[in-house]
Amino acid sequence: MRRVLILLGFISATVAMEAQQDPQFTQWYNDKLSFNPATAGVDNSHCITMFYRDQWGGLDAQPKTALLNYSGAVESIHGGLGLTFYSDKLGQEQNTIFRGAYAFHANPNSQGGIFSAGLALGFYGKKLGNDWV
After folding, report:
1. What string of DSSP letters covers the chain?
2. What angle do CA 103, 84, 90 make, to 5 degrees?
3. Which of 32, 37, 115, 119 is most buried (most C-beta within 10 Å)?
């Protein structure tokens, strides 16, 4: 029994060691597409959103984060399309994300409500530097 507990403790410790740095934006409530692909084109317009954050200016290895979103309604597919490009640099770590989103929109009743379901597919790249000395 003791060996099983030691093995479970080792496995949980190695799983817990995997981590990532989440992006930090002060205006995150304006960034709906990155969190929810169903919002692509939901307001029946085209929208481009850009964010940039340079934290701890003047210090070495300062975090720099940039995000570019496009969201637009496309009448012929009864929904919307979205594109997201995100770049985050924190010390020796650099993350790049490119994601495309599709949202299906339906009007289930005549009271103006919208049903929206979304799907996002993308690329996530991570690069670690080697000049830490």
Report:
1. -HHHHHHHHHHHHHHHT--------TTGGG-HHHH-GGGTTTTSSEEEEEEEEE-STTSTT--EEEEEEEEEEEGGGTEEEEEEEEEEEETTEEEEEEEEEEEEEE--STTS--EEEEEEEEEEEEEE-----
2. 145
3. 37
- The 3-state secondary structure of 24-57, one letter per residue: CCCCHHHCHHHHCHHHCCCCCCEEEEEEEEECCC
d(CA 48, CA 82): 10
The region, left, alpha or beta by phi > 0 then psi within -120 to 50, assigned to residue 62 is beta
User: pTM for this structure?
Assistant: 0.73
Write the pLDDT tens digit of every residue in 62-117. 888 899 999 999 989 989 999 999 999 888 888 999 999 999 998 877 677 888 99
